[in-house]
Design goal:
The chain is of the alpha+beta class. Helices cover about 40% and strands about 35% of the residues. The strands form three sheets. Strands 9-10-11-14-15-16-17-18-19-20 form a ten-stranded antiparallel barrel. Strands 7-1-4-3-2-6-5-8 form an eight-stranded mixed beta sheet, with no helix packed on it. The chain starts with a helix and ends in a 5-residue tail after the last helix.
């Protein structure tokens, strides 16, 4: 037979087991043995939060508060979150309440960054709900302000002077209404007259509107006639274009002829090619001045006046037209010291001799050549100083130095020595120390000098500008307005 003490003990153990089992069954937090990651967040106050408070995402329990500590003047919360909930690094934590007076919990708002928070990471804090104590103090302050306002209104209402002012204002209002009534009665006839005038004005406006309507109808009829004419013109145009489309008539046959269309397209293509070629063409102008020097010929009978070039000078003005980067045209005009040389043969029948007479006249010489460049070698071919000629140039040191040679003047270069042709062989070097300015040093009439024992050299200076330089120069010139 069980004693009373034994019954009480068994009942107590059963009650404790029920309480513990109910707590374990209803506990939503993460248990110590459950896997989780640790995250920290710092909040202004931990009021209403405690170890075991839930951590939620969209209202779903994902963890709990494991630890509450102090960090400076703020509270640091240690959260444990189940690892299956992957949180981006820009996730924000907020302190929320289940209701106005409900339990507080931590709400997590996941971000959008691809990187995830790791164990020991720290969350950013979003907004926090207002503190109930602060709200209470604010309500108390508002209540005090309302009480002060009602007290002031009571004092104003109970003041005798204020009451008299209010009564006087009401009396003045009554007097004003009486005055308005008297004015209305005295001006009754004037008001009626104004109403009658307004009525007559309305009648006149109606009559004017009727007259304007007739004019508008007339203009609309005229516009309708014009529209009919336009429609007939459009029909005529459609008829003409239809005949052209069907190939009727001369224009129709011309437009619908495939050969004509192809010829027209080819012509337009050729015109476009020419225009495009001129658009891509670059121009350069230049000037070269040279002074000739040298020794005297040993054959004084033939060269009775000495070296034909020594002590003289020449000026050359030229232009390059460059439609392609490696191909261009050369145009020059110069006053070469020998001018132009012609000769005439005179026959003496008595003796059977032939006498050749050379004539040299000061004159300008003209050059037109085509030039092509392969890497650092340039070749020229065409008219050189009024006669056929060829030339070559070797470009060195980023085009700062040129080694050039020209062979030209095949017929009369040997004047006045002999009719045997000794073409003018010109060799020179050009150095451009600064942009646009260059210096020349070379030899002239090399073969003729070797034949008759003398040498002729020259030194020169020049400058050149391309179209970009000319546009810049024109842009910097002062305008007359």
């Amino acid at each position: 037979m069980a004693t009373t003490e034994l019954k009480v003990g068994v009942f107590t153990l059963v009650a404790v087991a029920i309480v513990v089992g109910g707590y374990v069954w209803s506990y939503d937090g993460i248990r110590a043995e459950e896997a989780a990651i640790r995250l920290d967040v710092v909040v202004p106050s931990a009021d209403g939060l405690f170890s075991g408070s839930s951590v939620r995402i969209a209202g779903v329990e994902v963890g709990s508060i494991d630890e509450i500590g102090v960090e400076g003047d703020r509270a640091r919360l240690g959260l444990r979150v189940r690892p299956q909930y992957e949180l981006p690094i820009d996730t924000v934590a907020e302190v929320r309440s289940s209701g106005l007076l409900g339990d507080r919990y931590i709400a997590l708002i996941p971000g959008s960054e691809p990187a995830l928070l790791q164990d020991g990471g720290r969350l950013e804090l979003g907004r926090t709900p207002g503190d109930i104590d602060v709200i209470t103090r604010q309500v108390e302050d508002i209540s005090g302000d309302v009480k002060a306002i009602t007290s002031a209104l009571r004092l104003v209402a109970e003041n005798e002077a204020n009451r008299q002012h209010v009564e006087g204002t009401l009396a003045n209002t009554d007097a004003l209404m009486l005055e308005l009534r008297m004015i209305a009665e005295q001006n009754h006839q004037d008001v009626n007259a104004i109403v009658d005038a307004t009525r007559r004005l309305t009648t006149n406006l109606e009559a004017l509107s009727v007259s304007l309507q007739r004019d508008v109808d007339l203009e609309m009829a005229k516009l309708h006639d014009v529209t009919d004419g336009v429609n007939r013109s459009v029909e005529d145009i459609e008829s003409i274009t239809g005949k052209i489309d069907r190939g009727e008539g001369t224009i129709g046959a011309l437009v619908n002829d495939a050969t004509t269309i192809e010829t027209l397209n080819e012509t337009i293509s050729n015109v476009n090619s020419v225009v495009e070629g001129f658009t891509r063409t670059h121009a350069e102008v230049y000037y070269t001045g040279r002074w000739y020097f040298g020794s005297q010929p040993t054959d004084t009978d033939t060269f009775f006046y000495g070296n034909p070039l020594a002590g003289s000078g020449s000026n050359t003005i030229g232009m390059l037209l460059q439609p392609q980067e490696d191909f261009w045209y050369v145009f020059e005009v110069n006053d070469y010291p020998l001018g132009t040389v012609t000769y005439a043969e005179h026959y003496f029948p008595d003796t059977g001799q032939i006498y050749t007479e050379y004539v040299r006249e000061p004159n300008y010489r003209f050059t037109f050549q085509m030039a092509k460049r392969w890497w650092d070698l340039e070749l020229r071919l065409g008219v050189k100083e009024n006669g056929g000629g060829v030339g070559a140039t070797l470009w060195l040191f980023e085009d700062r130095v040129q080694l050039a040679g020209d062979v030209f003047d095949f017929d009369l270069s040997s004047y006045p020595a002999t009719k045997t042709p000794y073409p003018n062989v010109r060799l020179f070097a050009r150095y451009e120390p600064i942009d646009h300015v260059y210096f020349d040093l070379g030899s002239e009439q090399l073969l003729l000098g070797l034949r008759y024992g003398y040498q002729t050299g020259f030194a020169g200076v020049g400058f050149h500008f391309n179209d970009d330089d000319l546009r810049w120069l024109l842009a910097t010139l002062p305008l007359p307005f």
